[in-house]
Each structure stands twice: as structure tokens, then as C-alpha cells.
Amino acid sequence: MRDQELWTWHIGAGAVILVLLGLHMTVMHLEAIVRVFNPAPGEPVDWANVVARGKSVFFLVTYVLLLGTALFHGFYGLRNILFELNPGPATKKTLSGLILVVGLALFVVGTWAAWVGFTVARGA
Amino acid sequence: MADNTSEVVFRIRRFDPTSDAEPHWEDYRFACAPGMTVLEGLKLIKEKLSPTLAWRSSCRMGVCGSCGMFINGRARLACNTQVAELESDLVTVAPLPNFNIIRDLVPDLFPMFQAHLEAQPYIIRDDTAEQQQPSGEYWQSAHQLEQYLQFSYCIKCGCCMAACPTYATDPHYAGPMPLGQAHRYNSDSRDGGFAARKALLSGERGPWRCHFAGECSRVCPKGVDPARAIQLMKRQLVFDYLKLSKQPCPAPIAKPPAGLKRREGIPEAPPRTIT
Predict the structure, then answer these.
(1) CA-based nearest residue to B65, from B166, B173, B181
(2) Cβ–Cβ of A7/B208 closer than 8 Å?
(3) Are residues B103 and B11 part of one domain?
(4) Cα separation, B163 vs B180, whole angstroms
(5) Residue B95 has what DSSP assignment?
(6) How many domains does chain B have?
(7) A39, A105 in Cβ contact below 8 A?
(8) DSSP notation for B102-142
(9) C-alpha distance from residue B145 to each of A30, B142, B196 (Å)
(10) Could you tell me if residue B230 is inside a domain?
């Protein structure tokens, strides 16, 4: 049951990542066509454009969503690779716990960084 | 009359657990007649060169699935493989990989059949009384039949298991044959056993370990596509988790044909012998 559940979320996360990476490519590399995400003149990585995006709640949500889905997708893949080395049941349990803790810690740190960026941009 | 025979060497992997510590190779040279199969070559060796050679075979026509072997680097049926089609005068024959060897060319297929049993490869329905005393046939359309027909051609020879790279490295993986057969019954409109099979399928031994190498489908001597069955099963299980799949009621009993008249000269069916 657990693998059916995890695999479904893995596929779902992959689909969300595909959409969000498409958004990233649009924002960063199609600025000549789609200016809506980069209101200031110049490159998408220019300070004015970074601040403009940083103020947006939409981008805050997409950053956190991308972080969460990418962490889940990547760490589930890592878990599968490690499990294919045929560890014992106790090692499997430990590895799953470790991956969960590291993934959650990275998510908390990444979300905090995104929130700080959002508040700094709002104050700028 | 022209003599069409040519000389071949059968290099056979021998192992006798009572005397050998490790398997070893032995060569047998003999004249190969046109059309000779690998199985016939083995029988000739047993008859004339090495009476102790052991293997499994039965029907010698690609139906029973007993003579799966690793012939010239590929899992095949010995009865279904002519020496000429190998295009080599050296024929290497070994037991199917990924299984323990019982003796010579006899692999221990118990793990495969154990997983097959766990997949519950039979029709599961609530109407036990109807199954024991059938009052008619279960209705099934041609389209519903096509959903599982190719998977029902599996003869359980184990060639797919021998070719699977995941099964080679992960003994917990159920393997392409049991999973393919689970899908065969899950996709049968007469069956209602999807929930019962989920114990095997939704867990760690299920289709999630499949890397989709596709070797199982490439080597299958009956043209079954277990790799496709496994991918379809993944989709079915994902839809099941998301509660997007419609679990149809198992097929009803077909109504007896009405308004038909028996043609003259065709006798009535004999009475039942089993009650």
C-alpha cells in the first residue's frame, strides 16, 4: 500500500515540477517575449526584476511548491536507489527515517529563505 | 542423396550438487541434422554421449514451458530453437539465470511460482455457488477479451524472469511473470479480485521496482508483453489510489440464446456427468 501511495505522489510531484520548470524557463529565458514577469528593463537577473518578482505572493508560493515537490521527487528516487542495494528491514527503516528528516529540514530552511526574501523585497 | 548434416559443438553448463562444488562447462561434438532443435541435440547427447545430463522438458512443441534455458546468451525454449537459427557451430546451453541450479540445466523455479501464487492467478468472484455449479457463461465482449488475451498466452517458462535485470539484482521483486499474470486477471472483466491482489501489487514487491528495460518482452517465446502489463498495472494502481478508477462489477451471466432453432441433424448436448 505504501509504495502505491508514494509512487502516485512521486508521479504527481514530477508533473508539478514539469509545470514549474516550464514557468522558470519562461521567466528566465523568454523575457524578450513574456515581459510580464520582468517589469523592469534589462535582464531577468537584474536587481530590479529580482525584487519585482520577490514581492509577488505568486512567486513565493511557486518557490515553496517547487522546493517541496523537487525534494519529495528527488529523495523518493534516492530512497529507491538505496533500496535496490537490498538492505535489511532495519536499515530500510533507518534510511527512510533519515531521508524524511533531511528532506523536512531542507524544506523548512528553503521555505524560511523564501519567506525572508519575500519580506526583504517588500521592504525594499 | 546429399548429406546436409554439419558438425556442431554443444557447450553445456554441468553441475551435480552431489559431486561438484561449482558448475563447469563440458563440450559435446556431434553431427547436426537439418531442422534439429536444441532439445533434440540434448536428447542425442543424453542417449549417446552423456547419460547423466539432466534438464526439464515435456511437450517439445513450445506449449508446456518446461524447457526454458539460456541458449547462446539468451533465454529461450530449447524445443522452439533450431540449431540452424543460432547461426553458429557452437551452441552454449546453461540453466536459466537468476535462479538457483538444482542440477545441470534444471533451475529451481520455486521462487517464481511462489510469487505467482501470491498474485492469485485465477478468477475471484463473490458468486462461489455459481462458479461451482455454473448455470451459464459469464458475458464478455470481444473488446473486453482483448484487454487480457495476449497476457493469457504466458506458459510460465521463466524466460522473462531470467532476462529481467531488476529480478537479477533484487530477489524481493516479484518479477515480470507473476506481475504480468496479476494484470492478466485484473484486466479480465469476469474478475473482481483487484482488491485481493493489492496486497502483493501495492507493496514493495509490486510493479514499482520495474525499470522498464523491456527484456522480458523481448525474450518471451510466446510473444507476451509483460513489460506492458506492468506499466498498465502501475497506471491502474495510481488511478486506484486517486479513486479515479471505476471498479466494474464482474461480468454477469450471459442470457441463454433466445429465438434460435437447432438445425436438423445436430444432436442435443449429452447430460452432465458432474453434479
Answers:
(1) B181
(2) yes
(3) yes
(4) 14
(5) P
(6) 2
(7) no
(8) EETTEE--HHHHHHHHHT--S---S-HHHHHS--SPBP--H
(9) 50, 5, 22
(10) yes
Residues of B in contact with A83 (CB under 8 A): 204
Over chain B, what is the mean pLDDT?
A: 93
Q: CA triplet B162, B163, B164: central angle to 5 degrees?
A: 95
Cβ–Cβ contacts within 10 Å for residue B61, how many?
A: 9
State whether residue A5 sits within 8 Å of chain B by CB.
Answer: yes
Query: Collapsing DSSP states into helix, strand and coil, what is residue B213?
Result: coil
In terms of domains, do B54 and B92 share one? yes
Query: Chain A contact for B241, CB < 8 A?
Result: yes
Task: List, for residues A98-118, the tens digit of each pLDDT value.
Answer: 999 999 999 999 999 999 999
| A-B contacts (CB, under 8 Å) | 42
CB neighbour list of residue B271: distance below 8 Å, 6 or more residues apart = none
**pLDDT, position B133:** 87
ipTM of the complex: 0.81
**The CATH number of the domain where B117 resides is what?**
1.10.1060.10
Q: Residue B64 has what DSSP assignment?
A: S
Who's near B177: CB < 8 A, 6+ residues apart? B112, B115, B116, B154, B156, B158, B160, B161, B216, B226
My answer on whether B217 and B114 are in the same domain is: yes
- Residue B69 phi, psi (nearest 5): -145, 165
- E-only strand ranges, A39-81: none
Q: How far apart (Å, rounded) are the C-alpha atoms in residues B38 and B88?
A: 12
pLDDT given at position B218: 97
What Cα–Cα distance (Å) separates residue B167 from each residue in A3, B12, B122, B213, B227? 18, 24, 24, 11, 13
Phi, psi angles (nearest 5°) of residue B185: -85, -35
Range of the domain at B49: 6-107
Residues in chain A closer than 8 A to B166 (CB atoms): 84
State the Cα–Cα distance between residues B188 and B163, nearest whole angstrom.
27
Domain membership of residue A116 as a residue range: 2-123
Cα distance between residue B157 and residue B135, in whole Å:
35
Q: Does B198 touch chain A (CB under 8 A)?
A: yes
CB-based contact A54:A46 (threshold 8 Å): no
What is d(CA A118, CA A58) in angstroms, rounded to the nearest whole number?
Answer: 11
DSSP helix/strand/coil, B274? coil
Taking 50 as the threshold, does the pLDDT of residue A66 lie above it? yes
Q: Where are the beta strands (DSSP E) in chain B?
A: 6-14, 24-32, 68-71, 74-77, 90-94, 101-103, 106-107
